[in-house]
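Write out the bound-state structure for S-adenosylmethionine.
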Amino acid sequence: GYRARSAYKLKQLNESSSLLSPGDVAVDLGAAPGGWLQVASEEVGEHGKVIGVDLQRIKELEARNVTTIRGDMTEEDTKEQLFEAIGDDGADVVLSDMAPNMTGEYNLDHARSVYLARQAFEVALELLDSGGDLVVKVFDGPDLPDLRSDMEKEFQYVRATHPDASRQESSELYLIGKKRITAPVKKGD
Ligand code: SAM
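---
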């Protein structure tokens, strides 16, 4: 079984958008308790690797292709740790299921979710190889079109989807950027 029901959301996203393949290097932001890590680990297989980051401690997984980092993705320190863990070869896919602590105040929750999605987008621009994919969770609202159009500049196409497995949280959706257009600038260039 999976650690979190959200595992099924990633399965659906993967089925509809072909995100994970054997041998891939995948980054999973906001990875606790680890449902997406379990799915990603299965999909990338023994020749792939998955690196998960979360504010919360992630209970160790059995899978040998998974590494976790405890940290805050809004902090430079954590990003540096992630870049080091990935190394120069970059990543094939960046996934973010990060969500803010909900206040119930719609606009605030929305703005915070977009801020987290933008952190994932920035990191993706550093890490993704040409052709790589990005998935970010956001709560729907007025800042979404700007985020989407910024992503459209960097990917061949962007789509928005509500996986059936997340239907109960109606304002939650995922933006999927498919096939990064340009190669990342390697550090030291
Ligand atoms: N995909 C996960 C799974 O399948 O188990 C569930 C993720 S849960 C919906 C959202 C996670 O985002 C929480 O564990 C939370 O701690 C994390 N998160 C929120 N803000 C974060 C930040 N600034 N840096 C890292 N993780 C963050």
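---
The pocket of S-adenosylmethionine is lined by residues 3-4, 6-7, 30-36, 53-56, 72-74, 97-99, 116 (CB under 6 Å).
The beta strands are 25-29, 49-54, 66-70, 91-96, 128-139, 155-161, 172-180.
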